[in-house]
Structure formats: C-alpha cells, structure tokens
Amino acid sequence: MPNKYTNKLHNKRVLVLGGTSGIGFCVAENALENGAVVIVASSRQESIDKTLSRLRGSYPDLTDNISGHTIDLRSDDAENAIISLLDSATNNGNDPLDHIVSTAGDSLALQPLSAFSGAATLEKAQRVRIIAPMLIAKHAPGKYLRSSNQSTITLTGGVNTHRPGVNWSIPVYAGAGLQGLVRALAVDLRPIRVNLVEPGAVETELFSRVYSGETLEKMLAEFKKQTLTGAIGRPEDVSELYVYFMRDPFVTGQSVLSEGGLLLAAGLTR
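-> structure tokens emitted (270 positions)
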C-alpha cells in the first residue's frame, strides 16, 4: 500500500519545547505516532523524567525515538541555554532537527493598567513567548535545523489576542507581537517555514491545578457555552495543527486558530 501521506514525518527529528504537559505533550505523542524522533524540553528535570516514562510506557517499541533535555527560557542567560539545548538535541549539530515546536509559556501577567511599571514588565511578558523564539530563530537554522522548505518552526499564541478580556493588555501586547513575528521570520528564515497556532480554551492539566470539584465543572461549562461547537478544546485535537504545519511544505507565515468558533459565537444573541 502506498505511504506518501502517512510517512511524511517518518524519522524526522522534532524538538518540542514545553513538551511535558498539555498541548506540547500531545504534539510529542502525535509526532511519535507519525514516525518521528522526538526530543522534549522543559524547565524541570522531574517533569522531563516523568514525561519520558509516560511516552516510553505508551510507545514501548519507540523508546529509541524519545529523549529529553531541560532548559529555562526565563533565564537571564537564555541565549546560551538555547544554544546548549540545540547542541544536546542534535549531537552538536551532527543530527540536525527537521521541526521545532514551542508550546512553552509562563503565567500570564493579568493586571490593570494602573499597576503597569514600565519596560521591565513588558520585557518579562516577552521572555518566553517572543524573545526565546527569536533566539531559536537566530541560532537554529543551518547547523541545528535543516535549511529546507520541509523544515518548520511552529510557535503558540492564543485566541485572547483577537478578543481581549479585562486586564489583558500586557498578554495581548505579546500575542500581537507573536503574530507579526511569525510573518517576519517566515521571510527572514526562508525556505524554513514559520507558523503560529492560536488555541482557545483547551482542557489541560493546568485547569485541574487551578480549579477543582464543582468550581472546575462550572468553569468548563462556561467555556463550552462560549463556543459554536458547545465543547472545550482537547490537547490531542489541537496537536493536529502543529503536525499539519510540519506535513504541508507549502504553508508559511500563517496563524491558525483552534477555538471552537469562539470569535463567531461572540456575535450571537443567546
């Protein structure tokens, strides 16, 4: 049977930053199931160890395709940390990557404008979401990431950039910058392709850490009511967008939403 579609990621090397939980973990799973060699990266060694154990337990025949490394993208020395990660993930450039995915994030700086304290606040908001991707784009192409239209960098934003809530000025500032950044990087890094996934509310482990019991159920029900699909996102489903960007060598500089019709539902009278 022909395999021109199902083998597109076979033996491709995929680095997933933020790959130990939520959407990033499902991107790692999805890439593995599509035949890729996957390297997950996160800030804590404990999280890396647990993730490798989970993946190897689920895919015992693919243990040689799974590895992980730590990195702190919030560090003052993030540039050297990224170079070190790229060195480790590629055997010092001898086994270059085909795809880099970043789902890494940090706590959103929701605060009223009256609490805004200037440039330092903006710099903190950009460290993981904009500065780290720019450093990856600076150092990865060539030595660590194959220079080809088959190669990708895929970043992660959010639907709130399109529909800000109260006190979202700082996160939306970073999110809008990310939208422009992927377009500019698509030009600067050509033929490497650069794209952006913008999810809506997705039920990940984060919900269970922040909410519990009846409060969690009410929160999930509220998110479901805000969409056209009447559902909340699942990380395994959103992961399909990241794999799509890897598989289609004719798409670059694009931002794609996975939000259940939230933006359209906002115009409905219920």
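The first strand starts at residue 13 and ends at 17.
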